[in-house]
């Protein structure tokens, strides 16, 4: 199982950690929300928790819990600017559909999470 970052995403993670003044990684997860079902969660991580997987890409570290990794496996993460909005953008092979606003998504049956 793996996840990768673009240069832009890695640079944004490093900038946020530097701005915060502490931390080792970006923690990415999923939660049930929205009109389609799932959404990404983000927080800066000070440690790798038991059961988490870590991925180093372009000098930035990402950590993901095992249940979220089932849904996020194979994702490539970019950091994009669209108008005035900046955000991480996922190219996730497990996504089946997204809501119109792009905030939530649904996954193929084989990648269904057990996390609530």
From TrEMBL:
Residues 1-103 form the Core domain. GO terms for molecular function: 2 iron, 2 sulfur cluster binding. GO terms for cellular component: cytosol. One of its GO terms (biological process) is iron-sulfur cluster assembly. NCBIfam families: iron-sulfur cluster assembly accessory protein. Belongs to the HesB/IscA family. This is Iron-sulfur cluster assembly protein. It comes from Aquabacterium commune.
């Amino acid at each position: 199982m793996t996840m990768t970052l673009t240069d832009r995403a890695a640079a944004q993670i490093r900038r946020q950690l530097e701005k915060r003044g502490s931390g080792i990684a970006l923690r990415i997860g999923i939660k049930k929300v929205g009109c389609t079902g799932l959404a990404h969660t983000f927080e800066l991580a000070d440690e790798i928790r038991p059961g988490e997987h870590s991925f180093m890409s372009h000098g930035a570290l990402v950590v993901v819990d095992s249940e979220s990794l089932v849904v996020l496996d194979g994702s490539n993460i970019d950091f994009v600017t669209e108008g005035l909005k900046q955000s991480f953008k996922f190219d996730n092979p497990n996504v089946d559909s997204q809501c119109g606003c792009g905030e939530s998504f649904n996954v193929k049956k084989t990648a269904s999470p057990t996390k609530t």
